Amino acid sequence: MAKDDYMVIVYKILSYLYECLKAGKAPDPADYCWNCDMFQIPRAYWESIMEELINNGYIKGAAVIRSIGRSGPAIKTGAQTAITLAGADYLENNSTMSKARAFLGSSFQSVLSGIVGALA
User: Fold this and answer.
1) What is the CATH number of the domain that holds 29?
2) Residue 21 falls within a domain, yes or no?
3) CA angle, corner 118, sides to 114 and 120, nearest 5?
């Protein structure tokens, strides 16, 4: 696995949203967008990942917006974006998510706690 693998990015996004939910804090889209502190990936790659998370029911409060002349979707997120029960189950029980968790190790949890703890 690499730090920019699809499943690693999915794990980071879902983990962030789950930690926000548990802390009772509104997520900041800047904390999980394509060029955030947790990862730096091309915008189109992030949009594709977010589209899958939305379409599979793993996150709510976000929208996929398609427009003429744009090659891919635009993603609208905000303070209402949240992980769903299906997303939390996927995060906790999927074997690939377990591999991503192991790959990232405890250092990611420290970074995540710092990001979520800094939210007002």
Assistant:
1) 1.10.10
2) yes
3) 155
Q: Between the CA of residue 77 and those of 56, 61, 105, 106, what are the distances in Å?
A: 16, 7, 28, 28
Q: Domain range holding 107?
A: 6-117
pLDDT tens, residue by residue, 29-78: 999 999 998 999 999 999 999 999 999 999 999 999 887 776 777 898 98
The pLDDT assigned to 119 comes to 61
Is the predicted pLDDT of residue 120 greater than 70, yes or no? no
Count of residues for the chain? 120
The answer as to whether 1 is a domain residue is: no
Residues 6+ apart with CB under 8 A from 99: 1, 7
8: amino acid identity, one letter: V
User: Would 59 be classed as within a structural domain?
Assistant: yes
What's the pLDDT at 85?
Answer: 98
The answer to whether residue 82 sits within a structural domain is: yes
Cα angle 52-55-57, degrees, rounded to a multiple of 5: 105
Q: Residue 100: left (phi > 0), alpha (psi -120 to 50), or beta?
A: alpha
